[in-house]
Write a structure and sequence with these properties.
The chain is an all-beta fold. 0% of the residues lie in helices and 48% in strands. The protein has a four-stranded antiparallel β-sheet with strand order 4-3-2-6, with no helix packed on it. The chain has a two-stranded antiparallel ribbon with strand order 1-5.
Amino acid sequence: GTWNAEIEPAWSFRTTEDSGLEPGTSFNILAGDYLNLTWIDGGTATVQDDGTIASDSGSGIPMLSTLVLTQ
């Protein structure tokens, strides 16, 4: 059957490549909840000085699923 794999507390993350985006640009972190057909709020992530994107303090990957960053 269908099930969700939630992560508590959310896993922090940092990309490994330069995103080419302006440092300080902020994104919303969303994870797909396919059981309830909704998006789970994972907080925010910010482009760092080296161009990588890192989850902000207290934010991250809230469930093992599709991960989307939106502005």
